[in-house]
Amino acid sequence: MVDRYWITFFVLLSCLVGVLDASAGDADPLYRACVGQCKKTGCVGETCFPHCKFSSDGASLDGPWYMQEPLYLQWKQWDCLSDCRYNCMLNREKEMASLGHGPVKYHGKWPFKRLYGFQEPVSVALSALNLVMHFHGWLSFFILMYYKLPLGLDKKRYYAFTSLWHIYGLLSMNAWFWSAVFHSRDVDLTEKLDYSSAIALLGYSLILAILRSFNVRIEAARVMVSAPLLAFITTHILYLNNYQMDYGWNMKVCLVMAVSQLLIWAIWAGVTHHPSRWKLWVVVVGGGLAMLLEIYDFPPYQGFVDAHALWHATTIPLTYIWWSFIKDDAEFSTAKLLKKMK
Fold first, then answer.
1. N or C: which end of the chain has fewer CB within 10 A?
2. Which structural domain range is residue 279 located in?
Protein backbone atom coordinates (compact mmCIF):
# COMPACT_ATOMS: atom_id res chain seq x y z
CA MET A 1 0.00 0.00 0.00
CA VAL A 2 2.22 2.49 -1.33
CA ASP A 3 -0.17 5.27 -1.00
CA ARG A 4 -0.34 4.19 2.49
CA TYR A 5 3.39 4.56 2.40
CA TRP A 6 3.28 8.20 1.59
CA ILE A 7 0.29 8.70 3.78
CA THR A 8 2.41 6.87 6.23
CA PHE A 9 4.77 9.71 5.79
CA PHE A 10 1.88 12.10 5.79
CA VAL A 11 1.15 10.77 9.26
CA LEU A 12 4.78 10.80 10.22
CA LEU A 13 4.95 14.33 9.15
CA SER A 14 1.84 15.06 11.18
CA CYS A 15 3.32 13.09 14.04
CA LEU A 16 6.62 14.96 13.83
CA VAL A 17 5.13 18.40 13.44
CA GLY A 18 3.65 18.80 16.88
CA VAL A 19 2.91 22.44 17.63
CA LEU A 20 5.35 23.51 20.28
CA ASP A 21 5.05 26.64 22.37
CA ALA A 22 8.70 27.52 22.97
CA SER A 23 10.33 28.31 19.64
CA ALA A 24 13.07 30.84 19.12
CA GLY A 25 10.69 33.38 17.58
CA ASP A 26 8.07 33.50 20.31
CA ALA A 27 10.84 33.54 22.96
CA ASP A 28 12.18 36.78 21.44
CA PRO A 29 11.58 39.66 23.91
CA LEU A 30 10.86 42.12 21.09
CA TYR A 31 8.25 39.80 19.61
CA ARG A 32 6.65 39.26 23.01
CA ALA A 33 6.58 43.00 23.66
CA CYS A 34 4.94 43.60 20.28
CA VAL A 35 2.23 41.02 20.96
CA GLY A 36 1.65 42.39 24.44
CA GLN A 37 1.26 45.93 23.12
CA CYS A 38 -1.05 44.76 20.34
CA LYS A 39 -3.28 42.92 22.80
CA LYS A 40 -3.74 46.24 24.64
CA THR A 41 -4.21 48.54 21.65
CA GLY A 42 -5.31 46.28 18.80
CA CYS A 43 -2.57 47.71 16.59
CA VAL A 44 0.86 46.71 15.31
CA GLY A 45 2.64 49.88 14.29
CA GLU A 46 0.24 51.75 12.03
CA THR A 47 -1.78 48.60 11.24
CA CYS A 48 -4.90 48.25 13.36
CA PHE A 49 -7.51 45.52 13.25
CA PRO A 50 -11.15 46.67 13.09
CA HIS A 51 -12.35 43.54 14.89
CA CYS A 52 -9.89 44.16 17.77
CA LYS A 53 -12.10 46.36 19.95
CA PHE A 54 -11.90 46.50 23.72
CA SER A 55 -14.19 47.61 26.51
CA SER A 56 -13.07 49.76 29.43
CA ASP A 57 -12.08 46.65 31.38
CA GLY A 58 -9.96 45.33 28.52
CA ALA A 59 -12.39 42.65 27.34
CA SER A 60 -12.56 42.08 23.61
CA LEU A 61 -15.73 43.15 21.81
CA ASP A 62 -16.97 41.88 18.50
CA GLY A 63 -18.23 45.29 17.46
CA PRO A 64 -20.82 45.97 14.77
CA TRP A 65 -20.96 43.79 11.68
CA TYR A 66 -19.15 46.31 9.48
CA MET A 67 -16.21 46.32 11.90
CA GLN A 68 -15.75 42.57 11.78
CA GLU A 69 -13.72 40.45 9.38
CA PRO A 70 -15.45 39.11 6.28
CA LEU A 71 -17.11 35.69 6.60
CA TYR A 72 -14.42 33.91 4.58
CA LEU A 73 -11.96 34.91 7.30
CA GLN A 74 -14.28 34.53 10.30
CA TRP A 75 -14.75 30.79 9.79
CA LYS A 76 -10.99 30.39 10.17
CA GLN A 77 -11.18 31.97 13.64
CA TRP A 78 -8.65 34.70 12.98
CA ASP A 79 -9.16 36.56 16.25
CA CYS A 80 -7.40 39.53 17.76
CA LEU A 81 -4.59 37.47 19.32
CA SER A 82 -3.84 35.50 16.16
CA ASP A 83 -3.72 38.70 14.09
CA CYS A 84 -1.44 40.31 16.65
CA ARG A 85 0.92 37.35 16.56
CA TYR A 86 0.87 37.17 12.78
CA ASN A 87 1.66 40.84 12.18
CA CYS A 88 4.22 41.01 14.96
CA MET A 89 5.89 37.98 13.41
CA LEU A 90 6.03 39.63 9.97
CA ASN A 91 7.43 42.85 11.40
CA ARG A 92 10.04 41.01 13.45
CA GLU A 93 11.07 38.90 10.44
CA LYS A 94 11.58 42.06 8.37
CA GLU A 95 13.74 43.54 11.09
CA MET A 96 15.83 40.37 11.38
CA ALA A 97 16.19 40.11 7.59
CA SER A 98 17.51 43.68 7.47
CA LEU A 99 20.16 42.62 9.98
CA GLY A 100 21.11 39.60 7.89
CA HIS A 101 19.42 36.98 10.06
CA GLY A 102 17.34 34.13 8.67
CA PRO A 103 13.78 33.13 9.61
CA VAL A 104 13.02 31.44 12.92
CA LYS A 105 10.00 29.48 14.11
CA TYR A 106 7.14 31.01 16.07
CA HIS A 107 5.02 28.75 18.28
CA GLY A 108 6.50 25.70 16.53
CA LYS A 109 5.89 26.91 12.98
CA TRP A 110 7.86 28.72 10.32
CA PRO A 111 6.72 32.28 9.45
CA PHE A 112 4.28 31.66 6.59
CA LYS A 113 2.49 34.43 4.76
CA ARG A 114 -1.27 34.24 4.56
CA LEU A 115 -3.01 34.25 1.21
CA TYR A 116 -6.75 35.00 1.18
CA GLY A 117 -6.92 33.85 4.78
CA PHE A 118 -5.11 30.56 4.19
CA GLN A 119 -2.29 29.95 6.67
CA GLU A 120 -0.13 27.73 4.40
CA PRO A 121 -1.60 28.21 0.90
CA VAL A 122 0.87 26.03 -1.00
CA SER A 123 0.41 23.06 1.34
CA VAL A 124 -3.35 23.54 1.10
CA ALA A 125 -3.23 23.45 -2.70
CA LEU A 126 -0.95 20.41 -2.77
CA SER A 127 -3.11 18.57 -0.23
CA ALA A 128 -6.10 19.26 -2.46
CA LEU A 129 -4.18 17.91 -5.47
CA ASN A 130 -3.36 14.75 -3.52
CA LEU A 131 -7.04 14.37 -2.74
CA VAL A 132 -7.85 14.73 -6.45
CA MET A 133 -5.22 12.13 -7.35
CA HIS A 134 -6.71 9.70 -4.86
CA PHE A 135 -10.17 10.31 -6.23
CA HIS A 136 -8.90 9.70 -9.76
CA GLY A 137 -7.13 6.51 -8.66
CA TRP A 138 -10.11 5.22 -6.72
CA LEU A 139 -12.52 6.06 -9.57
CA SER A 140 -10.36 4.28 -12.15
CA PHE A 141 -10.18 1.26 -9.81
CA PHE A 142 -13.97 1.34 -9.45
CA ILE A 143 -14.44 1.41 -13.23
CA LEU A 144 -11.97 -1.44 -13.66
CA MET A 145 -13.69 -3.66 -11.11
CA TYR A 146 -17.30 -3.01 -12.10
CA TYR A 147 -17.11 -2.46 -15.84
CA LYS A 148 -14.00 -4.19 -17.21
CA LEU A 149 -13.08 -7.29 -15.22
CA PRO A 150 -15.33 -10.37 -15.52
CA LEU A 151 -17.76 -11.53 -12.84
CA GLY A 152 -18.25 -15.02 -11.47
CA LEU A 153 -21.42 -17.05 -11.89
CA ASP A 154 -22.67 -15.70 -8.55
CA LYS A 155 -22.09 -12.12 -9.78
CA LYS A 156 -19.18 -11.70 -7.39
CA ARG A 157 -15.80 -10.32 -8.34
CA TYR A 158 -12.84 -12.64 -8.52
CA TYR A 159 -10.60 -10.10 -6.79
CA ALA A 160 -11.24 -10.73 -3.10
CA PHE A 161 -9.84 -7.40 -1.87
CA THR A 162 -12.11 -5.04 -3.81
CA SER A 163 -14.10 -3.77 -0.83
CA LEU A 164 -10.92 -3.27 1.22
CA TRP A 165 -9.43 -1.01 -1.45
CA HIS A 166 -12.66 0.97 -1.64
CA ILE A 167 -12.41 1.69 2.08
CA TYR A 168 -8.78 2.58 1.63
CA GLY A 169 -9.64 5.08 -1.11
CA LEU A 170 -12.27 6.77 1.05
CA LEU A 171 -9.93 6.98 4.04
CA SER A 172 -7.19 8.43 1.83
CA MET A 173 -9.44 11.15 0.45
CA ASN A 174 -10.67 11.93 3.96
CA ALA A 175 -7.10 12.22 5.26
CA TRP A 176 -6.03 14.62 2.52
CA PHE A 177 -9.19 16.68 2.94
CA TRP A 178 -8.41 17.31 6.59
CA SER A 179 -4.77 17.90 5.73
CA ALA A 180 -5.90 20.75 3.48
CA VAL A 181 -8.17 22.11 6.23
CA PHE A 182 -5.41 21.87 8.85
CA HIS A 183 -2.89 23.72 6.68
CA SER A 184 -5.56 26.26 5.92
CA ARG A 185 -5.96 27.08 9.62
CA ASP A 186 -4.12 25.42 12.47
CA VAL A 187 -6.46 25.35 15.47
CA ASP A 188 -7.13 22.67 18.06
CA LEU A 189 -10.07 21.13 16.18
CA THR A 190 -8.41 20.99 12.75
CA GLU A 191 -5.25 19.57 14.30
CA LYS A 192 -7.17 16.74 15.96
CA LEU A 193 -9.12 15.97 12.78
CA ASP A 194 -5.92 15.94 10.72
CA TYR A 195 -4.04 13.71 13.15
CA SER A 196 -6.99 11.36 13.68
CA SER A 197 -7.65 10.95 9.95
CA ALA A 198 -3.99 10.32 9.17
CA ILE A 199 -3.58 7.80 11.97
CA ALA A 200 -6.77 5.99 10.95
CA LEU A 201 -5.48 5.72 7.38
CA LEU A 202 -2.05 4.54 8.51
CA GLY A 203 -3.52 1.92 10.81
CA TYR A 204 -5.95 0.66 8.19
CA SER A 205 -3.11 0.53 5.67
CA LEU A 206 -1.19 -1.77 8.00
CA ILE A 207 -4.21 -4.05 8.28
CA LEU A 208 -4.65 -4.09 4.52
CA ALA A 209 -0.96 -4.85 4.01
CA ILE A 210 -1.27 -7.90 6.27
CA LEU A 211 -4.49 -9.14 4.68
CA ARG A 212 -3.25 -8.74 1.10
CA SER A 213 0.30 -10.01 1.56
CA PHE A 214 -0.89 -13.14 3.40
CA ASN A 215 -3.84 -13.49 1.01
CA VAL A 216 -6.40 -13.64 3.83
CA ARG A 217 -9.77 -14.24 2.13
CA ILE A 218 -11.94 -15.80 4.85
CA GLU A 219 -14.02 -13.18 6.66
CA ALA A 220 -13.57 -14.75 10.09
CA ALA A 221 -9.79 -14.72 9.68
CA ARG A 222 -9.89 -11.08 8.56
CA VAL A 223 -11.83 -10.13 11.68
CA MET A 224 -9.37 -11.97 13.90
CA VAL A 225 -6.44 -10.13 12.30
CA SER A 226 -8.09 -6.72 12.18
CA ALA A 227 -9.84 -6.56 15.55
CA PRO A 228 -6.75 -6.13 17.79
CA LEU A 229 -5.23 -3.52 15.48
CA LEU A 230 -8.53 -1.63 15.15
CA ALA A 231 -8.90 -1.63 18.93
CA PHE A 232 -5.39 -0.23 19.38
CA ILE A 233 -5.83 2.43 16.68
CA THR A 234 -9.18 3.54 18.12
CA THR A 235 -7.77 3.71 21.64
CA HIS A 236 -4.77 5.69 20.43
CA ILE A 237 -6.95 8.25 18.64
CA LEU A 238 -9.23 8.61 21.67
CA TYR A 239 -6.18 9.07 23.89
CA LEU A 240 -4.80 11.89 21.73
CA ASN A 241 -8.13 13.67 21.39
CA ASN A 242 -9.54 13.30 24.88
CA TYR A 243 -6.61 12.87 27.23
CA GLN A 244 -3.33 14.27 25.95
CA MET A 245 -1.95 15.25 22.54
CA ASP A 246 1.33 13.46 23.17
CA TYR A 247 3.41 14.15 20.05
CA GLY A 248 6.33 11.98 21.17
CA TRP A 249 4.19 8.91 21.82
CA ASN A 250 2.24 9.50 18.63
CA MET A 251 5.47 9.63 16.63
CA LYS A 252 6.57 6.27 18.06
CA VAL A 253 3.22 4.67 17.20
CA CYS A 254 3.33 6.06 13.67
CA LEU A 255 6.90 4.88 13.11
CA VAL A 256 6.14 1.33 14.25
CA MET A 257 3.06 1.07 12.01
CA ALA A 258 4.87 2.63 9.06
CA VAL A 259 7.97 0.48 9.27
CA SER A 260 5.91 -2.67 9.82
CA GLN A 261 3.79 -2.26 6.73
CA LEU A 262 6.70 -1.20 4.57
CA LEU A 263 8.64 -4.32 5.52
CA ILE A 264 5.58 -6.45 4.81
CA TRP A 265 5.06 -4.98 1.35
CA ALA A 266 8.74 -5.04 0.41
CA ILE A 267 9.15 -8.68 1.41
CA TRP A 268 5.87 -9.70 -0.24
CA ALA A 269 6.82 -8.05 -3.54
CA GLY A 270 10.14 -9.84 -3.62
CA VAL A 271 8.89 -13.26 -2.53
CA THR A 272 5.88 -13.40 -4.86
CA HIS A 273 7.65 -11.88 -7.89
CA HIS A 274 4.58 -9.78 -8.57
CA PRO A 275 4.68 -8.56 -12.22
CA SER A 276 4.17 -4.95 -11.10
CA ARG A 277 6.48 -5.08 -8.10
CA TRP A 278 8.67 -2.37 -9.64
CA LYS A 279 5.83 0.11 -9.15
CA LEU A 280 5.66 -0.80 -5.49
CA TRP A 281 9.40 -0.39 -5.11
CA VAL A 282 9.33 2.96 -6.89
CA VAL A 283 6.81 4.25 -4.39
CA VAL A 284 8.68 2.80 -1.44
CA VAL A 285 12.02 4.24 -2.53
CA GLY A 286 10.45 7.50 -3.65
CA GLY A 287 8.64 7.87 -0.34
CA GLY A 288 11.84 7.19 1.53
CA LEU A 289 13.73 9.82 -0.41
CA ALA A 290 10.88 12.26 0.06
CA MET A 291 11.26 11.84 3.80
CA LEU A 292 14.61 13.60 3.50
CA LEU A 293 12.58 16.75 2.94
CA GLU A 294 11.13 16.31 6.41
CA ILE A 295 14.58 15.78 7.89
CA TYR A 296 16.01 18.80 6.06
CA ASP A 297 13.40 21.19 7.43
CA PHE A 298 14.15 24.54 5.80
CA PRO A 299 12.11 27.75 6.18
CA PRO A 300 9.51 28.68 3.55
CA TYR A 301 10.83 30.35 0.41
CA GLN A 302 9.25 33.80 0.10
CA GLY A 303 7.02 32.77 3.01
CA PHE A 304 5.14 30.12 1.01
CA VAL A 305 7.09 26.98 -0.01
CA ASP A 306 8.86 24.97 2.68
CA ALA A 307 10.18 21.41 2.89
CA HIS A 308 6.82 20.10 4.03
CA ALA A 309 5.08 21.61 1.02
CA LEU A 310 7.63 19.97 -1.29
CA TRP A 311 6.96 16.67 0.47
CA HIS A 312 3.29 17.07 -0.38
CA ALA A 313 4.30 17.68 -3.99
CA THR A 314 6.28 14.41 -4.18
CA THR A 315 3.28 12.36 -3.02
CA ILE A 316 1.24 13.39 -6.07
CA PRO A 317 3.10 11.27 -8.68
CA LEU A 318 3.63 8.50 -6.10
CA THR A 319 -0.13 8.34 -5.60
CA TYR A 320 -0.67 7.84 -9.32
CA ILE A 321 1.85 4.99 -9.42
CA TRP A 322 0.41 3.41 -6.30
CA TRP A 323 -3.14 3.25 -7.66
CA SER A 324 -1.70 1.90 -10.91
CA PHE A 325 -0.15 -0.91 -8.87
CA ILE A 326 -3.46 -1.60 -7.15
CA LYS A 327 -5.22 -1.95 -10.51
CA ASP A 328 -2.45 -4.18 -11.83
CA ASP A 329 -2.80 -6.37 -8.76
CA ALA A 330 -6.54 -6.70 -9.34
CA GLU A 331 -6.06 -7.66 -12.98
CA PHE A 332 -3.21 -10.06 -12.22
CA SER A 333 -5.10 -11.78 -9.37
CA THR A 334 -8.25 -12.11 -11.48
CA ALA A 335 -6.37 -13.58 -14.44
CA LYS A 336 -4.48 -15.98 -12.17
CA LEU A 337 -7.69 -17.24 -10.55
CA LEU A 338 -9.45 -17.69 -13.90
CA LYS A 339 -6.49 -19.66 -15.19
CA LYS A 340 -6.72 -22.03 -12.21
CA MET A 341 -10.43 -22.53 -12.79
CA LYS A 342 -9.95 -23.71 -16.37
1. C
2. 2-19+118-341
